[in-house]
Amino acid sequence: MNASLTPFYEKKLECLLCKKGFTSTKIRSSFVKVDYYDKDFCPNYHDDMINPLFYNVFVCPHCGFSFTEDFSKYFPPTTSEEIIHRVSDQWVAQDYGKNRTPIQAINSYKLAAYCGELKREKKVTTAGFYLRIAWLYRKLKNTNQEQRFMKFAVEEYVQSYLNSDFHGTQMSEIKIMYLIAQLSYQIGENEQAVMYLSKVIEKQNTTTERTIIEMAKDQWQEIRLTKKEENLA
């Protein structure tokens, strides 16, 4: 590896809304090392300062429109006018293009979630933003906000699953069902968790995603044991 190479580089972008150019910081993948993942797939990085989660969202400094590589370039009728009215007209010029703090990263996802909803992006996309906000609050040990955004994520993932809007994305049916189950359990919605875990386990003979099947089985056992202990108490 080149000794002068840093983990960070600047990516040149064009805003999908106002079409103006700007740059945003990204992290070179060769510098990223994940120590382990939480049950809801939250990555725990070896170096907290080299966290790609901080830089997924591109925030246009000119108009405030915030987006990721998952956004489509197409704006449904009237949505661009709505975004200009609700985001750009209120925008106070600020630069998210440099190294971000955890709070700046959280704010960038909140902006992207809002812009995504106004633009009518897929539910699975906005669910991903809420989940990442929850992960970042977890790192800050802000449990109330972590739980709040996990709840938002579950609601969006359920809508995505029911409407099948995750098709054509990197999210598989097994993974979205498992995430709904896992997040539901984490926010205390045990009935919903059990229902979606059973949906995952039913697919065990028809899927190649064996790791998720095993994770679902482990979670199922954990819920059963917890329930048994509560009944004995």
Average pLDDT rating? 95
Largest sheet: 2 strands, antiparallel
Class computed from helices, strands and strand pairing: mainly alpha
Distance between the termini: 58 Å
The portion of residues forming beta strands comes to 5-15%
Order of helices and strands: EEEEEEHHHHHHH
Shape: globular
Low-confidence residue ranges: none
Pfam family, one: DUF2225
Organism: Heyndrickxia vini
Protein name: DUF2225 domain-containing protein
InterPro entries: DUF2225 (IPR018708), TPR-like_helical_dom_sf (IPR011990)
Topology:
Blueprint: E1 8-14, E2 21-27, E3 34-37, E4 43-45, E5 58-59, E6 66-67, H1 79-86, H2 102-119, H3 123-139, H4 143-163, H5 173-186, H6 190-202, H7 210-232
Q: Would you write up a description of this structure?
A:
The chain is mainly alpha-helical and 233 residues long. It has a domain at 8-121. Helix content is 49%, strand content 11%. It contains seven helices and six strands. The strands form three sheets. The chain has a two-stranded antiparallel sheet with strand order 1-2. A two-stranded antiparallel ribbon has the order 3-4. A two-stranded antiparallel ribbon has the order 5-6. A hairpin with a 5-residue loop joins strand 3 (34-37) and strand 4 (43-45). The longest helix is centred in the last third of the chain and has 23 residues, at 210-232. The relative contact order is 0.09. The model has no long low-confidence stretch (mean pLDDT 95).
